[in-house]
Write a structure and sequence with these properties.
The structure is a homodimer. Chain A is an all-alpha fold and about 200 residues long. Chain A contains nine helices and no strands. The interface between A and B is medium-sized, with 34 and 33 residues. The first copy, chain A, binds a DNA duplex (18 and 18 nucleotides) through α3.
Chain lengths: ~200, ~200
DNA sequence: GTCTATACATCGATAGAC
DNA sequence: GTCTATCGATGTATAGAC
């Protein structure tokens, strides 16, 4: 019996270190010391430092997925979208290092593995589903949505980490987005010939 | 007589290296070798590697300012805003490493110096002036604007560097933004009591 | 599985000779 | 101003004792 596997403990401590000193300041010797191991022994559990980053990447995406599953989505699709967006923005701003790992290409040689990407895709597909529920199915509209959210988060984390100068604009941004999509759809209906039915 | 100072040449080569290998892959030894010096001799011109990053930061902001000054802004304020936004987005996406240095906090201990920030503020103030010309003076509206542009650029650079999947949404985003500000202003006019005059 | 020991190449940075 | 020499770090790797 054990409370946590060595692998699990290494990852937990890695997150601690990274949060304290920055994403790229993760050192194998330091990490080993914190878990009572020499740096070399870490290679028993992870083949390289990038493998640790990769596990952290998966880690973080799973955490986001878990939180989404924990939501009890309201019946109203728009309310559900709002809830999702707020959860995502909070997730991205409550831990800027995690945000950096997930959404910025900042570690020199690190590229998430295929299986890590799979989890990231799950997150994105979840978003697509929620948007489809409010009638947004055009891929360009979805790109627009991700850009709007990404912009708020990027500005918040870059210029006022921990604050809410940008994130408090979220509901306004969602309204603006939904109005824009509705406007564009009604324009399209009015000006383009109908599909034969 | 000389074609360029050592300082200038070091910076030029630093940009080359960084564009080739990534922002954090800048190495003093490599940089020295490319300019015909040993790494240690670089410290005659820059007191540290961060000082080189700082000079590059100022460098890039000045380049952006120069381009703005080179614009011959159209008389119509909205057209001028469009032109500015397009120029900015192109500036941010044509060189992702430069974008990373200017707008992402990615280098472990690097913080731009006060005088470097001054140039960055000039850039921001320029944007504020152009937005004021189209009637956008509320600071929250300006924050909204910067987030919208930042979002397009962030998504483009992170997910499809060199492409235009997000940046081609720029005019749509500007329209959406202007409509939102207009809507909000008219709402305010209609529902709030006027100031005594 | 973990240790010690050792190795190699890399890094930023400093001291001091010339 | 440029050099050699050196320092203390880093990631990575291997060999071998226990």
């Amino acid at each position: 019996m054990h409370t946590s596997s060595p692998t699990r403990e290494i990852l937990d401590v890695a997150w601690e270190l990274v949060r304290a000193d920055g994403l790229s300041a993760l050192s194998m010797r330091e990490l080993g010391a914190r878990v009572g191991l020499r740096a070399q022994s870490l290679y028993v559990y992870f083949p390289s430092k990038h493998a640790i980053y990769d596990a952290m990447f998966t880690n973080a995406n799973r955490e986001l997925l878990d939180r989404r599953r924990a939501l009890d989505p309201p019946a109203d699709p728009t309310a559900a979208l709002r809830e999702l967006a707020h959860q995502f923005v909070e997730f991205c701003t409550e831990d800027t290092v995690r945000y950096q790992l997930l959404f910025q290409r900042t570690i020199p040689g690190f590229e998430p593995s295929e299986q890590s990407y799979a989890v990231a895709r799950e997150v994105l597909d979840w978003g697509r589903r929620v948007l489809a529920d409010v009638g947004v199915t055009d891929p360009a509209d979805f790109d627009l949505y991700t850009a709007l959210i990404a912009g708020l988060v990027a500005q918040q984390n870059a210029n006022e980490p921990g604050g809410d100068r940008w994130t408090r604009l979220l509901d306004r941004v969602i309204d603006m987005f939904l109005a824009e999509v509705a406007r564009r759809n009604s324009n399209t209906d009015a000006t383009l010939p109908r599909e034969p039915s």
